[in-house]
What we know:
Helix content: over 70%
Mean pLDDT: 82
Order of helices and strands: HHHHHHHHHHHHEEH
CATH class of the largest domain: Mainly Alpha
CATH architecture of the largest domain: Orthogonal Bundle
Radius of gyration: 24 Å
Strand content: under 5%
CATH superfamily of the largest domain: MetI-like
Number of strands: 2
Strand order of the largest sheet: 1-2
Amino acid sequence: MRRRSIGLHTVGTVLTYIGVILVLIWVLFPVVWVAMGSLKARELAAAVPPVWIFTPSFDNYSSAFLRRNFGILFLNSLIATTASTAVVLLLGSMAGYALARFKIVAKQNILFWILSTRMFPPIAAVIPIFLLFNTLRLIDTRQGLVLLYIAFNLPFAIWIMRGFFAEIPSDLDDAAMVDGCSPWQAFTKVILPLAAPGLAATAIFCMMFSWNEFLFALIISRAQTQTLPIGVMGFITQRGVLWGEMSAASTVIMAPMIIFTFLVQRYLIRGLTFGAVKG
């Protein structure tokens, strides 16, 4: 019986590894395919059947950045994403902490209202937002992109951070204030560091939304403030799709988010209040 159980355990482990490998292939194959396409010559990028062995070339990257001003688009996306995420984390953490700790009249109704702002389809708000931004002279400005991304990311950040703060024992706040901290100091020096995994997760989602956002950037941006997703459309021409340059642009778009996720992954897997409270 013991040998049989060991055999079944071994079979289960092998099947698990096979399943994990298949999932990884399914998830990573498009990324690898795009990265390979960015290194192929233009005539090989859309070859049928696909060419697997080739001499790498960076002509697609130079063409995308030098001939099509892709560097300006990268800068626009970087500024809009980082600025909006920083403001969202600041405001979202404070609002989430207040909703998790303080007694507020009609708190559940406020929470539902915050969540409900994410329920309607974004396309329904395109015309009102365009008219509002046009009145405020925010069309084709980086400030407009930042404000727009803040408006759409802030409800999500408040809801997520409120859940993280609610899981942190309130005794830590009381202990910090007994030691002489003000409520603000207790929040910034004790509670906020413990919520680092929540901040990291919220930052990842907000940055991904802002970095990849297409619809509103298409509506309110023009030549001076176009972002990377808008710039990719420029590789679809009347003569056909420039697959090599599009693959290079897509690789550049994916790389920062992948790198950022790897940098903050330790905060995501760390226990939220591990070791904070004993007994």
